[in-house]
Write a structure and sequence with these properties.
This protein has 60 residues and is mainly alpha-helical. Helix content is 82%, strand content 0%. α2 runs antiparallel to α3. It starts with 5 loop residues before the first helix and ends with a helix.
């Protein structure tokens, strides 16, 4: 696993997405099968909204 300075993540939308995917995978490992479906929907919804908000803020 590479360690990327937070400044690098802040400046790259691709790195933001990659780090979110890594975090999701790590959290999925600790959940039960019953929890996974709800977690996936909730996590994806929140991350999508946050990333869109960050990208819109950066454009302005």
């Amino acid at each position: 696993m590479n360690i990327i300075p937070i400044e690098g993540i802040r400046t790259s939308n691709q790195l933001k997405k990659e780090k979110c995917i890594e975090a999701k995978a790590a959290m999925r490992d600790i959940l039960t099968d019953e929890q996974l479906e709800k977690f996936d929907k909730t996590f994806d919804s929140v991350v999508d909204k946050v990333l869109k908000g960050v990208m819109l803020k950066e454009k302005n």
